[in-house]
Amino acid sequence: MSDTYPIIKCRNCRYIFQPDMMTNENWPCPICQFKNPNLKRHYRSVADICILSLIATPILIAVGFIRTGLNLAMILLAAHAIAHAFLLLVTIIFIYKSKTPWANNVVKALIWTVFGLAFFFNVVLPLVLAGRLNIPFIIVYAFVFPYLFWLNSQAGKCRVSGPLVASRTDKSGK
Fold first, then answer.
1. Is the pTM here over 0.90, yes or no?
2. Which of 23, 86, 125, 154 ranks highest by number of CB atoms within 10 Å?
3. Residue 19 has pLDDT above 60, yes or no
4. Structural domain boundaries of the chain?
């Protein structure tokens, strides 16, 4: 799917149309008036979560440094944070640069990589290495992952597959 022609398929009647990319509201189908989710807005919300992560990471490292001082764990955490910050920045740039982030496989792969790695390093690793549950991060991911699964399913329902040749213009098929 090209990133230059923003089109979606109505989830209700399957009509293929070009949504109003400037609005922050739902995208109504011109045929059945079904309110399709504004996928661009939702993907930018994911980018906003990434931006919040960029802001929170140095704060968490500073708190850890104040508690434990400079040690090997803090150095490794800082190195991980720098690498993760780079990945977050790349993801944010790709989301905001893409006209159709819901159809861009690179954007979707970056999003799942960012949040998968963050879950691994913030929840799985502390549980395995230190035997402790990181409850605040578990709560965050309990909201983030269902949202990402919902967004991925909506993108799949609205994605146009194949060439745009046989799009019907109205319900009668004219």
1. no
2. 154
3. yes
4. 40-158
